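Our collaborator T.R. sent over the components below with a one-line note: 'Predict the complex.' Nothing else. No constraints on interfaces, no templates requested, no preferences about which chain binds where. So this is a plain run: every listed entity goes in together, and whatever single assembly comes back becomes the starting point for the next discussion.
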Amino acid sequence: MKLHEYQSKQIFSRYNIPIPKGRVATTADEARHIASELGGRVVIKSQVLVGGRGKAGGIRLAKDPHEAEDVAAQILAMEIKGLPVRKVLVDEAANISKEIYLGITNDRSARKPVMMASSAGGVEIEEVARTTPEKINKSHIDPLLGLKDYQARNIAIGIDLPKQHWKVFIQIANGLWRAYQDCDATLAEINPLVITEDNQLIALDGKMLIDDNALFRHPDLAELRDLDVEAPAEVEARKYGLTYIKLDGNIGCMVNGAGLAMTTMDIIKLFGGEPANFLDIGGGAGSDKVAAAIRIILTDPNVKVVLFNIFGGITRGDEVAHGILTGLDEVKPHIPMVVRLVGTNAEEGRKLLSDANMITAETLVDAAKKSVAAAKSEKAGR
Amino acid sequence: MSILINKNTRLLVHGITGNEGLFHSIQMVSYGTNVVAGMTPGKGGEWVIEGKVPVFDSAKVAVEATGANTSCIFVPSRFAADSIYEAADAGISLIVCITEGIPVQDMMRVRNYLDQKMVRLVGPNCPGLLTPGESKVGIIPGNIAIPGNVGVVSRSGTLTYEVLYALKLLNHGVSTCVGIGGDPINGTNFIDALTMFEADPQTEKVVMIGEIGGTDEEKAAEYIAGHMTKPVVSFIAGQTAPPGKRMGHAGAIVEGGSGLAVDKIKALKAAGVRVASHPEEIPSLLF
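Returned assembly:
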């Protein structure tokens, strides 16, 4: 789950990381109030969960409260990469003399968190990693010990940070580590961390990603979820414990298991079709879950055929068949359905579906070919 | 021979009184697995599965009383990391964790702790282990594989069943099937399993099922090129997966241009691995 800049920075400030003075506004009027409280120049920053806000015109300076109101009104009327701007952050403008990157993420191969720093801040760290990897200073953190002061100091030395800033940098690095750990983040990033003209270190921008699997112990963070970034069907699917991801094709898929669901998409493509979605109904899916899955797949108007691929292990074939019948009865789709049931109670399941006027398939390849053929004739028929 | 589990496996099931734990313990017992104990805090003193399996309050007492050497964990994700520590501290040497959805920072701490203790973990978020005809630990349906000389290692669940079933239909038997799980941080990776298969006299060839996310398949390819004498056949799922989206498994995500199926396939082919274009093609590549 992604947090907004203002949410991440609020968390950072609780961990003694200096952030600019400022507040979030939902109206231009509020933005003017905040700007006059702050006095002087302010920066108005759209709060949307996509990259490239600056380039899209979603981050702008204002010299006084009156201009802040105008700029905020314009930004609040924007859509950036399809997402509406509902909030702007009004921050005191900083006089920047240098920009640094500082972040912590999970290093899968090292099985440890890694702190990364670069004297080339302000730009995409992936870009730096690709073009000039030597400019990134990396330090793995023992998850059982935590970040040690010497590591933070060595990072400061590694990025040629002037000695006078080491003490505050160590404080910021420690704060970032604690925020990352306490919030179960998978990424905690300050980009840029700036040195101002009057020699202060300030976190100008902040970004945090929170581990969805850890939200049970962070009800306060779970509430911060911004539903704008997710397709409504994906939100609906989560309610039923399903994982649904919309794609651009026309063959809807309902599969049990993530690996098999990906494979089903791949094999459709291999035989000349285009999958419309990823959908994993999970293990032991009961009929209510299956019915919800069918409804969700059919919310996509591009879907011309639905392929059900179920390998019964924990999931029982007869139970899934009941679910399919319930779902079909409720939705009454007028498109062809291909079904492949294998494994536990598959025989019983197939019997239940024999009257449902579905195309049956024995193997994965057979199922893919039949779905692709059905999608093509459906397209030709319209 | 086989790897990790066999007739001598003495299993302790964590969460044996829960729905899933009990269901699969019954399946394991009927397959022939020696389930010697279960544990659920607060249920110590009870007996389950027709009075055959004693339940304990703690793993330590269970191990002392029954000589359990392997653990299988079915407890919910918020308690699963604690169960792994408990099993390791009780002297268990092989822990198989089925539970899905354990927070990744918990798993980083668990893995770094286990490395110090020299305890092997398989999983989490995995279907477990199956040595056909001898023992199964986890949730892999027993009837979809027959004993034989093919070692199988996979990041997936039902996709693994699909492959086992395709092998069985063409009379290919399996030495051991290892489900290493779909999480970004796990206990056993491809190289660990490949190393064990290479050393196992029963195993003559290996099937490796990977998916998008991370670079474990690329590292496995390097290992295969340098150390494996036995032929390896592979399949990689997620060629059509869009970048930046987590495809169900916590670890199945293409991030920052890394973890793409096409790179994994390229690396494997370069290492001499035969890569199947779909799972049903795998048996025909095993020669």
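Summary for T.R.: The longest helix of chain A spans residues 166-182.
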